Amino acid sequence: MKHDSERFHAFDALRAAMMLLGVALHSSTAYSTFPDVWWLKDPVTSRWLDAFLLFVHGFRLPAFFVMSGFFAALLISRRGWQGFLENRVARLGLPFLLGMLVLYPFLKIAAVFAYFLVRDPNAWNRTLGWLAEGRLERAIEPMHLWFLEILMWLCLAAAPLAPRLTRWLGRPWFRSILASRLAPVFWSLLTFFTLLSMEFGILDTPHNFAPHFRIIAAYAVFFAFGWGLYCHRASLPLLRGAGWPHLCLAVLFTFITLGAIDRQVANRAVRDWPAFLATCAGTALTAWCMIFGLIGLFLRYFSQPSPRQRYLSDSAYWLYLVHPPVLVALQLPMMLLPWPAELKAVIGLLLAVPILLASYHYFVRSTWLGVILNGRKYPAQLQTVAIETCLEPQASV
């Protein structure tokens, strides 16, 4: 029983860390040279932030989907497929729907205002004119919540296949690969083939609500690996020892990937196949080395129950769901300031996180919103969080 609580606690913390890393990622996107990656584009940009975005994008959601697969297998083993689907509708579908209804209008209006702000002294009047034309609803998109749609598709597919998935992934071959030093290479091969369908050899982001099966297939590999980890949860100590070496390898592969992407952009008129294939390989190896490295580090350093750590884990879902309007509100006033892009990104992040944590503490944790996101209401006071609560595995996302 001790091992279970440690494993689940570490994985809960890792999943939350990937959510919180998304806030840091989006605090930088306004200052990237990449087009159409955020709601507004600051005139001051940074190639260093481009590299940061590509690096984090390459492993953050893959690691998150590994954790989602792990907790999906846990949840379906405890509640059956009907209880599993009911939980997924409540924890994924409802936040997705509410987020679209509440957040999209604000973010779209802010994006239009930001566009006019650096081009027209009458930015607000131009924005009102845009609204008067009825253009708000014409280009609705899943925003930063697109990953919830992907996860819902995977859960819908996994529910009826759960017994077969558990039998197949629970076989000895999975543990044999898990115990091998070449485990990241094996899983990278699977991811490599899914990346061949992407535009630049990195994980694409959907911009509409249609089911993009090539993207779903790419994340299904990570989800299935997480499911297999739950089937072989007794073997997780095998992953504790190689955290740092895997992270170092991931950094090396990141440099290869960045160089290959630069070459693709320089030769964009035609497909540069060597650069494209190098990008696919580098992206896959970076993702899986980071996944194995992060799992090892979190099992080693975050496997002990901690009320404060659990509090951050509980709050991470809310922080990610509502962070875009807070970041945009902080980024807008800085658009006309000639500060370095890196400084603006750090300022936005440092100001946004306390605001987001305060909103969770006072408006979510002990309210009906907390029931939706965390499955229950918690006492607002941090010191009253019982240590037994820290041992309960979360399956919120």
**Helix amount:** over 70%
Low-confidence blocks of residues: 1-7, 383-389
Number of helices: 13
* Structural class category: mainly alpha
Q: Give the terminus-to-terminus CA distance.
A: 24 Å
- Give the overall average pLDDT: 88
Tell me about this structure.
The structure is a single chain. With 397 residues, the protein is an all-alpha fold. The chain is 72% helix and 0% strand. Helix 2 (47-117) packs across helix 7 (213-231) and helix 6 packs across helix 9 (273-301). The longest helix has 71 residues, at 47-117. This is Acyltransferase family protein. The chain crosses the membrane at residues 12-31, 51-76, 96-118, 143-162, 182-203, 209-230, 242-261, 273-298, 318-339, 345-364. One of its GO terms (molecular function) is acyltransferase activity, transferring groups other than amino-acyl groups.
